[in-house]
UniProtKB/TrEMBL annotation:
<dbReference type="GO" id="GO:0042043">
    <property type="term" value="F:neurexin family protein binding"/>
</dbReference>
<keyword id="KW-1003">Cell membrane</keyword>
<protein>
    <recommendedName>
        <fullName>Synaptotagmin-like protein 2</fullName>
    </recommendedName>
</protein>
<dbReference type="InterPro" id="IPR000008">
    <property type="entry name" value="C2_dom"/>
</dbReference>
<feature type="compositionally biased region" description="Low complexity">
    <location>
        <begin position="24"/>
        <end position="33"/>
    </location>
</feature>
<keyword id="KW-0472">Membrane</keyword>
<keyword id="KW-0268">Exocytosis</keyword>
<feature type="domain" description="C2">
    <location>
        <begin position="199"/>
        <end position="328"/>
    </location>
</feature>
<dbReference type="GO" id="GO:0070382">
    <property type="term" value="C:exocytic vesicle"/>
</dbReference>
<keyword id="KW-0677">Repeat</keyword>
<dbReference type="Pfam" id="PF00168">
    <property type="entry name" value="C2"/>
</dbReference>
<feature type="domain" description="C2">
    <location>
        <begin position="59"/>
        <end position="184"/>
    </location>
</feature>
<feature type="region of interest" description="Disordered">
    <location>
        <begin position="1"/>
        <end position="33"/>
    </location>
</feature>
<dbReference type="GO" id="GO:0005886">
    <property type="term" value="C:plasma membrane"/>
</dbReference>
<dbReference type="InterPro" id="IPR043567">
    <property type="entry name" value="SYTL1-5_C2B"/>
</dbReference>
<dbReference type="InterPro" id="IPR035892">
    <property type="entry name" value="C2_domain_sf"/>
</dbReference>
<dbReference type="GO" id="GO:0006887">
    <property type="term" value="P:exocytosis"/>
</dbReference>
Amino acid sequence: MSDDRETDTASESSYQLSRHKKSPSSLTNLSSCSGMTSLSSVSGSVMSVYSGDFGNLEVKGNIQFAIEYVESLKELHVFVAQCKDLAAADVKKQRSDPYVKTYLLSDKGKMGKKKTLIVKKTLNPVYNEILRYKIEKQILKTQKLNLSVWHRDTFKRNSFLGEVELDLETWDWDNKQNKQLKWYPLKQKTAPVALEAENRGEMKLALQYVPEPIPGKKLPTTGEVHIWVKECLDLPLLRGSHLNSFVKCTILPDTSRKSRQKTRAVGKTTNPIFNHTMVYDGFRPEDLMEACVELSVWDHYKLTNQFLGGLRIGFGTGKSYGTEVDWMDSTSEEVALWEKMVNSPNTWIEATLPLRMFLIAKISK
């Protein structure tokens, strides 16, 4: 492969760990803090549908709601009226503090968490709220609507009280009856679809390890890892037909903000071409055993970034500098790319890898 990088952009950072090598205390500190993960950074919605207490309370009762597609606004309206005979989270006082949460689900993931207000101290809450989704009808017909009822306690913990799922693909939108309020029995949680199994698209990239960036130097220099993010293919659409994606890179266990690099955002396509090369220096041969390249793809919308999926490229040993870490979890394909790069210095090694879900390591200061 020729090295005529038609790079739109390039960026450089240093891999900071070699500095910490002499003082084990700061090193462990670095490794352990990056071993911690934060749910919040995984844009709540993908994970939070599974967070909370399942199975502790019996599921009983019914929910009354109606759905309608408003053509003039290109909006789905979910009218949540009320629930009756819910399970009691507070058994002694026979009451709950329930609210209703809705999602649109497709094979691409979850979209648009909406919630009603919480109604306190009742098993028969009345909401009369409309939850709105701006979405094209064609896309809506590929989705399922999930309504779930939850009890929120004083410590802000959620307990699952039941759910209803409607398949919008087979829904008869023209039937007047379907716009009327109807009662639906609440059901047990269906087993969550393994997040891994969802198709989250792919990334085409190339890696290169350059052991001696300045040849001919008498003193041993540290090497560089070059990461060429070429393009992504078939990214999931979480917001109807809109997508404005970019790629972030961190070399774990260094989670400092200054080690984080990102591409520019590319809009209006599920197959964005980035052609961005990132260079990290400060690598000694032994660091290649301990480090892991975390590439994450994000959809930028207004003030929020939604995590679409990513790669973790390393040896996947579960450990880094002697500390067990959960981010050293590369798949066999990711390990194969890293091995090839390590074994073929000064050569671009190209691959197209499937994106997957994981918890993003927290940024340290």
